[in-house]
Amino acid sequence: MTAFPKGFLWGGAVAAHQFEGGWQAGGKGVSIADVMTAGDNETKRRITDGVQSGENYPNHDAIDYYHRYHEDDQLFADLGLNCFRTSIAWTRIFPNGDEEQPNEAGLKFYDDVFDDLLSHQIEPVITLSHFEMPYHLVKKYGGWRSRKVIDFFVKFATVVFDRYKDKVKYWMTFNEINNQVGMMNEWSLFTNSGLLIKPDEDKEAVMFQAAHYEAVASALAVQIGHRINPDFQIGCMVAMGPVYPATPNPNDVFKAERTMQTNYYLADVQVKGKYPAFLDRYFDRHAFNLDITLEDRDVLLAGKVDYIGFSYYASHVTEASQDEPTDFITMGHNREVKNSTLQRSDWGWEIDPVGLRYALNWFSDRYEVPLFIVENGFGAFDKINQDGHIQDDYRIDYLRQHINQMRLAVEVDGVKLMGYTPWGIIDLVSAGTGQMEKRYGVIYVDKDDQGKGTLARSKKASFDWFQKVIRSNGDDL
Ligand code: BGP
Q1: For residue 179, which atom of ligand 1 is closest to its CA?
Q2: pLDDT score for 1
Q3: Phi then psi for 155, rounded to 5 degrees?
Q4: Atom of ligand 1 nearest to the CA of 175
Q5: How far is the CA of 58 from the centre of ligand 1 (A)?
Q6: Any idea which residues carry the catalytic annotation?
Q7: Residue nearest to atom 15 of ligand 1 (CA)
Q8: How far is CA 48 from CA 29, 42, 357, 405, 412, in A?
Q9: In this structure, what CATH number is given to the domain that contains residue 27?
Q10: Which of 36, 37, 252, 441 is the most exposed place for a label (fewest CB within 10 A)?
């Protein structure tokens, strides 16, 4: 007997901008991902003012799924996937974001892709916005700092819900909407909300405002989606990294709890339809001057999501200090501590399979809605053996241990889990570094950090292993 229910969704996850390429094909406009250069392990990606000649923009060509989807979908079918998570590049549908009419060539592209996936019995799982805002909306409206962008997003969502209502059932509104919360670095604010912060601005106020407009846009989209097709399952998507206290000192324990409340306040807004009490109080105590109307609060309550999609890669540890307020925890106040009990990836990400069970239980207790693990995986350098094969046992180990914890959460803890789509099932451009060599895939793509390679696809050892896992519905790990 297998722990996972019949119809459990076994898939793989990617995002349009990290794998499609074809950045100007079929009338596509420039997105925020298109104006970011590659960085390296230490340096975050550079945000340029538009596309500048001579720069290295890794998302422009990515791994060229745009021209190879037929071949790639066949590989996903061979792997045994019954679902596939990707995003719709907003700029294929509305190249500038504020046009009256959508771009038919862009709509047609996703018709073809979804038809191809469905012909293999692979259900598309679609994120509406995965770090892919049209760059024009940044230049003209300041990204999500403008209430006008709600209308543009809602129009985009309405057009694609309507067009694909018979092809796509599972949707998510914004990828890792909470990345911007508390991190307060340039990259996270730009990728999530298209925000470019001026030196004299209160970053926190700008972030709260932008995140609020996104939450309202998400709630409106949920309502419209359900009207278009009542069978739609529309989720939020948050980045989950449990935060543990460094010691049993109650101050550390409370600090960890407050950091969790901070990091997941947008899940409260999207799942419960309201801001948590501590944050409403925080807004009152600070003169942020936020534009949060009573009508907005009604919209949030009426547009609650059906499920929580989340990414899980690693956990974190925090400690309290005497002089800091136990208030909303922003970057600089998070005091991250190294977890001496865990191993780390080459990029310093803690490997914590039990943290996934913890996360599933935390979400399940707090929100009582179905959960969907829509990203999980091990970014690593892969070595090609002399015979051309990649024996990625480290990736198999990582996935095996995480799936095992996921099994315990379902079987022992009674968590309602819809599915599991490991991140970057096919090697793609890393969001954090813009490079290729941080690989997650069970399918290798011949392309290096310099953009060189044939783009040929090949199966790693993890491909055969994951195929076996899916065939046994998670029994044979
Ligand atoms: C998540 C994003 C993805 C993805 C993944 C891995 O934050 O939703 O887009 O890339 O993390 O991160 P990275 O590519 O930086 O290793």
Answers
A1: 7
A2: 57
A3: -65, -45
A4: 8
A5: 14
A6: 375
A7: 432
A8: 16, 18, 40, 41, 49
A9: 3.20.20.80
A10: 37
Higher pLDDT, 127 or 327: 127
85 beta partners: 13, 125
Give the pTM.
0.97
Q: What are the backbone angles phi and psi of residue 42, rounded to the nearest 5°?
A: -90, -40
Number of folded domains that form the chain: 1
CA 452 – CA 435 distance, rounded (Å): 12
Query: Does 94 fall in a domain?
Result: yes
Spatial contact of 355 and 315, defined as CB atoms under 8 Å apart: yes
Q: Tell me whether residue 4 is in a domain.
A: no
**Residue 280 domain boundaries:** 9-471
**Model ipTM value:** 0.98
Ligand 1 center–CA 440 separation, angstroms: 10
Pocket test for ligand 1, best of 17, 177, 187, 311 (most atoms within 8 A of CB): 311
Pocket of ligand 1, beta carbon within 6 A = 15, 18, 175-176, 239, 311, 375, 379, 423, 430-432, 438
Tell me how far CA of residue 352 lies from CA of 286, 340, 399, in angstroms.
Answer: 37, 12, 11
In a domain, 3, yes or no: no
* Distance of CA 410 from the midpoint of ligand 1 (Å): 25
**H or E element at residue 445:** strand 443-445
Fill in the DSSP letter of residue 119: H
Displacement of CA 88 from its chain's centroid (Å): 13
What is the residue with the minimal CA distance to atom 14 of ligand 1? 430
Supply the pLDDT for residue 331: 65
Q: Which of 300, 290, 295 is nearest to 265 (CA)?
A: 300
> 225-276, pLDDT tens digit by residue?
999 999 999 999 999 999 999 999 999 999 999 999 999 999 999 999 999 9
The pLDDT tens digits of the residues spanning 52-78 come to: 998 999 999 999 999 999 999 999 999
Q: DSSP label at 124?
A: E
Amino acid 429 reads V
Tokens 């009152």 sit on residue: 284
Ligand 1 pocket mutation, candidates 17, 181, 423, criterion most atoms within 8 A of CB: 423
How confident is the model over 384-401, as pLDDT tens digits? 999 999 999 999 999 999
Query: The tokens 């989340």 sit on which residue?
Result: 310
Whether 2 is in a domain gets the answer: no
Q: Which residue has the higher pLDDT, 250 or 326?
A: 250
Q: Whose CA is nearest to atom 16 of ligand 1?
A: 430
Check whether 142 has a pLDDT greater than 80.
yes
**Cβ neighbours around 190 below 10 Å, total:** 24
